[in-house]
Amino acid sequence: MLNAIASIFKELIDAQSSPANEDQPDLAIACLLTEVANADHNVAEEETIARRQILQKVCQVSETTADALLHQADQLVRDSASLYDFTSQLRSLSHPKRYELIQAMWELAHTDGYIDPLEDAVIRKTAELLYVDHSEFIRAKISVSDHI
């Protein structure tokens, strides 16, 4: 009996440390980009293209991998209750990488030429959950605005 219980715990631990979980940060990033794109309830074609390109750049993945991640992200975002589901997986990222993600989210929000207040709210909440200072949140927004 105890061996059976120990075996179950071992399987759970092995599953959590398996290579399949290594791409979870990339999937979480794809989900956050999807949240931004969907925030205004109007996903334009240029946003779909930009979302893939930004994911490729931030996560350094191929177009095929980005498409697969975004396909998974669409479903996960529909089933998710909050941004915490995704940001909790990214807290271990370095601070520069978290800042880069916030910047990428602003870049995506600017794609259609207008930042919807709901897009702003998603990015703001993500920055808070990732412990990115408000001043850096604003700096990222301005740096993207200046390049567009």
UniProtKB/TrEMBL annotation:
CDD domains: terB_like_2. It comes from the Bacteria. Residues 27-141 form the Co-chaperone DjlA N-terminal domain. InterPro entries: DjlA_N (IPR007791), TerB-like (IPR029024). This is Tellurite resistance protein TerB.
